[in-house]
Amino acid sequence: MTTDAPSPGVKLVRVPDDRAGQRLDNFLLGQLKGAPRSLVYRILRTGQVRVNGKRAKPESRLEGGDEVRIPPVRLGEPVDRGAAPKALLDRLAASIVFEDRLLLAVNKPSGIATHGGSGIGFGVIEGLRQLRPGEPLELVHRLDRDTSGLLVVARKRSALTELQALMREEGGIAKRYLALLVGRMPDGTMTVDQPLQKSVLQGGERMVRVDAGGKPSVSHFRVLERRGGHSFCEVRIDTGRTHQIRVHAAHVGHPVAGDEKYGDREANRRLREQAGLKRLFLHAASLEFALDGGRAPYVLNAPLAPELVAALDALA
């Protein structure tokens, strides 16, 4: 740990024990209220943030007692965003598929961000906090904005810590997705074991590619049925990398239908015309895990979004 006196304006923040396991980027977003995500990633990328005197990556997990160096940043006056639109709050209230004293689960609609940020006024977590004022709600994980399905929010700090620990364990949480892949996938189950490398572009946009220097990533694709020359699949993942299913599917030549970032533009155009598909056909359908040291099992399910059911019917 460095013993040099910090520069003027630099903050040295000791990580509380109850924040052990939190990602560094999420910790910084909490410390720098109102800071755009692009700014947070920029100060991380340029090495201005240090953990115990050393550079650290955005996804680094903190430990209780760690010392985080936060450089001075110039933030505009806090913007009072007011209340989230009533239509958003109504959609979120209707999307809650499970809750108990420890957590709640939302069947997140496509097009709604997990959280607000640069250019996005409100996401799921901001809306839920308005619906449940005074509750200490914390996101357990994230879904891409265009992906629908199960998103879990902790109602107690102890549940958040345990769930995040399970997320880091191989097999700690069983995740099942449903996806329409372009073209005819081989019958049976195809396992894609390819490392993924994430980069953050200027402006905070995330891009992921298959790269030998990336992190180990494993996805299992199983064809459930054929629809209109395409493959409706169940996908199970052993790891939870950013954009993992989308990049692995594209890598084997069968991108997720409706994927504007990694997909097939011509196939997407045909699916819009033939089946009315105007979004990414990727849905987080179920999660299985156990809390309280394995003594409290959970099996959470979220039905396929109506617009995806309609697209499948149109392709029959």
From TrEMBL:
Molecular function in Gene Ontology: 23S rRNA pseudouridine(955/2504/2580) synthase activity; RNA binding
GO terms under biological process: enzyme-directed rRNA pseudouridine synthesis
Keyword rRNA processing listed: yes
SMART domains: S4
UniProt keyword annotation of Glycoprotein present: no
EC number from the UniProt entry: 5.4.99.-
Active site: 144
Known catalytic reactions: uridine(955/2504/2580) in 23S rRNA = pseudouridine(955/2504/2580) in 23S rRNA; a uridine in RNA = a pseudouridine in RNA
Record-annotated RNA-binding S4 domain positions: 22-80
Keyword list, A-Z: Isomerase, RNA-binding, rRNA processing
Classification via InterPro entries: PsdUridine_synth_cat_dom_sf, PsdUridine_synth_RluA-like_CS, PsdUridine_synth_RluC/D, PsdUridine_synth_RsuA/RluA, RluA_PseudoU_synthase, S4_RNA-bd, S4_RNA-bd_sf
Family: Belongs to the pseudouridine synthase RluA family.
Its biological purpose: Responsible for synthesis of pseudouridine from uracil at positions 955, 2504 and 2580 in 23S ribosomal RNA.
PANTHER family: MITOCHONDRIAL RNA PSEUDOURIDINE SYNTHASE (PTHR21600), RIBOSOMAL LARGE SUBUNIT PSEUDOURIDINE SYNTHASE C (PTHR21600:SF92)
NCBIfam families: rluA_subfam
Protein name, per record: Pseudouridine synthase
